[in-house]
Amino acid sequence: MNASPALFVIDTNVPLTANNNEQTVSPACVQACVQAINAVTQSGRIVLDDNWRIINEYKHKLSPTGQPGVGDRFLKWVLTNHANPARCARVSLTPRQDDPRDFEEFPRDQALAGFDPSDRKFVAASCAHEERPPILQATDSKWWGLRRELERCGVRIQFLCPKDIKELHERKGGE
To answer: Who contacts 60 (Cβ-Cβ below 8 Å, separation ≥6)?
Structure first.
């Protein structure tokens, strides 16, 4: 029996970095994001929420035509495969009444109270899935600053560009 394909939640900055539009990251970081995107689209699976919050963010920042970059091809792949359970797992997220960008599935930990509301859907999607898949993260230095707190809450993050993200975090004064 074959093992099931690797499962991930993918933050939007991974396909954006794979598009190589950012001049602030190293070529090695771009290559790591390209390799991660290619591996997922060839033989992996991703987690998406049932209300298209993640897809809509991808659509807002990437081209659905699949051109011109690897990240854009990723969005086209997502739009083609979003209903295919062999490629995409769906989870339900429960918006909190006081803030629709926050979710019941997001860890209730005071250390995460300031976590970016627009990124909470990625953490909540990982937490909502029974496998608690890792979140692929490229360049958001705030995630680096909260990595220990997230890990303590059972959230796994796979930093594709640890050197770049650490330098960005330090340059931004720990933000």
So the answer is: none
Pick from 35, 46, 45: nearest CA to 70: 35
The full set of domain ranges for the chain reads: 7-171
Q: Write the DSSP string, 8-23.
A: EEE-THHHHHHTT--S
Query: Tens digits of per-residue pLDDT, 52-104?
Result: 999 999 999 999 998 999 999 999 999 999 999 999 999 999 999 988 889 99
Q: Are 78 and 88 in contact (CB under 8 A)?
A: yes
Which pairing describes strands 88-91 and 45-49: parallel, antiparallel, or unpaired?
parallel
Residue 169 in 3-state DSSP?
Answer: helix
Domain 7-171 has CATH 1.10.3470: no
Q: What is the pLDDT of residues 20-32, one digit of tens each?
A: 876 678 999 999 9
Beta strands in the chain (DSSP E): 7-10, 45-49, 88-91, 95-96, 99-103, 135-137, 157-159
